[in-house]
Structure formats: structure tokens, C-alpha cells
Design brief:
The complex is a heterodimer of chains A (402) and B (70). With 402 residues, chain A is an alpha/beta fold. Chain A has three domains: 183 residues, FAD/NAD(P)-binding domain (3-Layer(bba) Sandwich); 126 residues, 3-Layer(bba) Sandwich (FAD/NAD(P)-binding domain), CATH 3.50.50; 70 residues, Enolase-like, domain 1 (2-Layer Sandwich), CATH 3.30.390. In chain A, 25% of the residues lie in helices and 30% in strands. Chain A contains ten helices and 26 strands. A six-stranded antiparallel β-sheet of chain A has the order 21-22-25-24-23-26, sandwiched between helices. The longest helix of chain A has 15 residues. The N and C termini of chain A lie far apart (54 Å). Chain B has one domain: Alpha-Beta Plaits, CATH 3.30.70.20. In chain B, a hairpin with a 5-residue loop joins β2 and β3. Helix content of chain B is 21%, strand content 20%. Chain B is built from two helices and four strands, in the order βαββαβ. Chain B has a two-stranded antiparallel ribbon. Chain B has a two-stranded antiparallel ribbon with strand order 2-3. Chain B is of the alpha+beta class and 70 residues long. Classes of the chains: A alpha/beta (402), B alpha+beta (70). At the A-B interface, α1, α8 and α9 of A face α1 and α2 of B.
């Protein structure tokens, strides 16, 4: 495979998407240089563990690849602790906190960051969690704290609430909807997930908006729209994420919520690609933009495509076809989502677990399982085979209707 | 011939790799990953490489001929 036209590949972002892009470029025959630029100083590590095992144990997650493998086997030049600050597309230069880096092809894999708390961090009494370091610090804060408020009961907020509970804190989880994931997955699942929190002893306050956060001596007072005031020793703000793409402003790269790209993970500049949470795939065969699927498995799948396409001619480009997938662990319960949710769902019991099957116009679109590993695996197979009806899927499952 | 190298301490049975290479990999009833063939030839190399790269927990690797497993 000819790669002479793309002799220097620069990847911004040293998470899973970035690492996969590097490996994929090498698999595609790229023998030029690969520079991996990462804002954090740590080698790429298992980010899903930040709010799971790392927070519970107070230790950094494992690395995806060790230094020898990245530098030796893959021939990657590491530029860690280096932040992208700007892009000059005309001269093909990436500006960083540590000087300029020239590229022939660029992959943007800078991920997403937690939405900051509008009231600030109140001298460290309010925190957000994204990095391994955040997890280690929060572990120390949570250990021995009696009252903790977590704002936002999405996957991250729910994982944090679960970890805080396990560390002995008395947890109040504040959520705008009727339960976790209501906006994306509907009321039935949200109510089910709400019960998981309540059964485990976490106080879940639903339909709640935070009006203000203020210092109250050594504590923080969380004032809700209902007029209720919750006083806590620490608050974790987990109200969604956003991609910090300020460094691309003025570069001419089209950006909305994320960097806009096609299913080939290419931006409006054919030398600039994107993968992972920073990417926003726009369907090219219709006016409707696909919803952003921000997950570790999407980061891997998109990194693979972006790395391949960045070093190959457009005629041989691959496209992302991966089925969306996420997993989460709360109170030792395993939650897995495969495919995409839709308005209509059927709930099945499987042993001690539950499966929420989603269908649209009679076709199976996806499922969320709670301790339902075998059924989730079967749904994945049905989605891969295609053309399965929701009713057929329900019959296929070993369980019975709830 | 190449082969998969599975780090079973990392594998959590998500099954994402199975979608990329269903003829080489499967999940058993317990959700454990099963390698359907010990080794595979060039015809399967691309699918195998993709399967390894889509793993969200980096549990799967392809080792080429003569590469020592560690």
C-alpha cells in the first residue's frame, strides 16, 4: 500500500481512539512517522475504569498499551503533557503548548470533558471527574465523607454515586428526569434504573433542578427548584460532557457539538480526520444527523477507521459500521446497552436480570440489559444478522415478559 | 499463520470483537470469549486485526508468525 503521500501522521488525543488510530495506520501499511499528542502526562489508560474501579480503589486504571509497545512495536513518538492550541491547515501545522508539529494527515481524538459546574468548584468542595488523577483525588475526598451529593444520574453520575456508596458515604443523587437515561432511553428503563439506586440505599431525587450551590461553613448547600436544601460535605457535578474544541476555532474545520465528519471519519478537510467522543458523524445520505454515540466501543471503532483512512487514498477508505454499545456497573449490577433505543420497548425478565428491548416499526433496534449478559449477546447477534423483528427477538429470548 | 492473543484478565465478554470477525470469535453461554480457531491465514487477517482493534478494553491482540507471546 502506498503511503508516501501521507508520510507524517499526527494524532491529537492519547485515549483509546488515538491509540487505535495509530495501530490501524500501521496495520494499513503506514511506514511514516506517527506522533501521538496527549494533554495528560499518563500513557493511554482505561478511561471507563475512571468512575468504576479506579474511583473505588483510589488507583490509576491500567494502561491500554505499555511504553515499549507504543514506542517500540508501533514506532509512535509520544508527546504527552502537550495540549493542542491551534491548527493552521494551509501550512499543515498543529500548534501545541509545546511548539508546532507539522503533519501530512491529522487525527483529532481529543475526547470530551465534563460540563463544568456553573457555580465553580467552591474551593475544591465541588468536583468533576474525567481523568485518572480526578478519580484518585475524589477517592480520597469520598473516603470518610458522610454526606455527598452527586448531580446528574447519567452513566457517569450513577457510577460515581455507586462508588461513593461503596466507600461508605451517604449519597444523594439529584436528577432532572424521572431516572437515569430517560432522555435517551425512555421512561420505562429510567424508572427501572431509578429502583437500582433506591434499592442500594442511594437517595435519588428526581425531577429536580439545581438552583444554586453555595458554601455553608465547611459544607456545601445544594438548593433545588423544589425549595429543598441538601447540605453535603462534597458535591460531584456530573451533568453531561462537551468537547472542548476551542483550539479549532478559526481553523476552518467544521464544528458543531463535535467535529463534523462522514462515516469515513473525515472532516471537511481531506487531511483531517476525527474519532471518538470529539467526533460528530453526519449522515451523508440524508439530511438527518446521526445522534452522537459517545462510548468506549465507538472510540475504538472510529479510531480504527480514522487511522486507516488517514494513511490510505480515498478509494480504499473504510467506513464505520459498528453497532453502538455501552456498559456500566452500579452496585455490582451490570448494565449493557447495544444498538439504539427507540420509542417502543418491551421488558423481559431473564433469571435475576431484566432486558429492555427496543423496536421501531416492528424492527429490533437495540436493547439494554441489567444483569442480562446472555440476552444482550443474543440481541447483538440478531442486530448483526439484521431484519429481526422486535417480537421475534422477544420470543428468541429465554426469558418471559415482565 | 497468525493468532489471537487474549488477555483473559482484561476480557469482560462485551462481544464487540465478535461482530468484526464472527467466523473467528464467539461468546459462550457464560459470556466468555472463545477463539474458534487457534490460528488463521492471510484471508482472515484484516477481519482479525479489526476485531482486535474494536475491543473496548484492549483484551485482544493479533500476533504474527514467529512473534513470541508474552
Amino acid at each position: 500500500m502506498s503511503t508516501s503521500a501521507r508520510s507524517s501522521l499526527v494524532i491529537v488525543g492519547a485515549g483509546l481512539a488515538g491509540v487505535r488510530a495509530a495501530e490501524s495506520a500501521r496495520n494499513a501499511g503506514h511506514d511514516g512517522s506517527i506522533v501521538l499528542v496527549g494533554a495528560e502526562t499518563a500513557l493511554p489508560y482505561e478511561r471507563p475504569q475512571v468512575t468504576k474501579e479506579a474511583l473505588l480503589a483510589g488507583a490509576s486504571p491500567r494502561h491500554y498499551v505499555e511504553h515499549d509497545q507504543l514506542v517500540g512495536r508501533l514506532g509512535v513518538q509520544l508527546r504527552l503533557g502537550t495540549r493542542a492550541t491551534g491548527l493552521d491547515r494551509r501550512r499543515r501545522l498543529l500548534r501545541t503548548s509545546d511548539g508546532k508539529i507539522g503533519y501530512d494527515a491529522l487525527v483529532v481524538a481529543t475526547g470530551a470533558q465534563p460540563t463544568p459546574c456553573p457555580w465553580g468548584n467552591l474551593d475544591g468542595q465541588v468536583s468533576t471527574v474525567r481523568t485518572a488523577r480526578d478519580a484518585v483525588l475524589l477517592h480520597r475526598v469520598l473516603t470518610g465523607r458522610r454526606r455527598v451529593v452527586v448531580v446528574g444520574a447519567g452513566l457517569i453520575g450513577s457510577e460515581i454515586a455507586s462508588a461513593a456508596q461503596a466507600l461508605g458515604a451517604e449519597v444523594t443523587l439529584v436528577e432532572r428526569g424521572c431516572g437515569p437515561l430517560e432522555a435517551s432511553h425512555g421512561r420505562s428503563l429510567a424508572e427501572h434504573l431509578a429502583r437500582l439506586h433506591r434499592t442500594a440505599g442511594t437517595r435519588l431525587v428526581t425531577g429536580a433542578a439545581v438552583n444554586s450551590l453555595v458554601r455553608a461553613g465547611a459544607s456545601v448547600a445544594v438548593d433545588l427548584g423544589s425549595g429543598e436544601r441538601i447540605v453535603a460535605e462534597h458535591v460531584v457535578w456530573a451533568v453531561g460532557v462537551r468537547s472542548d474544541l476551542g483550539w479549532l476555532v478559526g481553523s476552518g474545520i467544521r464544528v458543531a457539538e463535535g467535529v463534523l465528519c462522514t462515516t469515513a471519519m473525515v472532516t471537511n478537510d481531506p487531511a483531517v480526520f476525527v474519532a471518538g467522543d470529539a467526533a460528530q458523524v453526519v449522515a451523508t445520505d440524508g439530511p438527518q444527523a446521526a445522534p452522537r454515540s459517545m462510548s468506549q466501543s465507538m472510540a475504538a471503532a472510529q479510531g480504527l477507521v480514522a487511522g486507516h483512512n488517514a494513511v490510505t487514498p480515498p478509494g480504499s477508505w473504510s467506513r464505520t459500521t459498528a453497532t453502538p454499545y455501552f456498559w456500566s456497573t452500579w452496585y455490582d449490577r451490570r448494565i449493557q446497552g447495544v444498538g439504539v433505543p427507540s420509542a417502543r420497548s418491551t421488558v423481559l425478565q431473564e433469571g435475576g436480570g431484566t432486558l429492555h428491548l427496543y423496536e421501531h416499526r416492528g424492527r429490533l433496534t437495540g436493547a439494554v440489559g441489567i444483569d442480562a449478559k446472555a440476552s444482550v449477546r443474543r440481541v447483538r447477534e440478531l442486530l448483526r444478522e439484521g431484519s429481526s423483528s422486535g417480537a421475534h427477538a422477544a420470543r428468541e429470548m429465554t426469558g418471559r415478559p415482565a | 499463520m497468525s493468532a489471537f492473543e487474549l488477555d483473559s484478565s482484561r476480557c469482560e465478554g462485551h462481544g464487540v470483537c465478535v461482530d468484526a470477525a464472527p467466523h473467528l470469535l464467539a461468546l459462550d453461554d457464560e459470556g466468555e470469549l472463545v477463539l474458534l480457531a487457534e490460528t488463521f491465514g492471510d484471508a482472515d487477517a484484516d477481519a482479525a486485526a479489526d476485531a482486535a482493534l474494536v475491543c473496548p478494553v484492549a483484551a485482544l491482540r493479533v500476533v504474527g508468525p514467529g512473534e513470541a507471546s508474552s
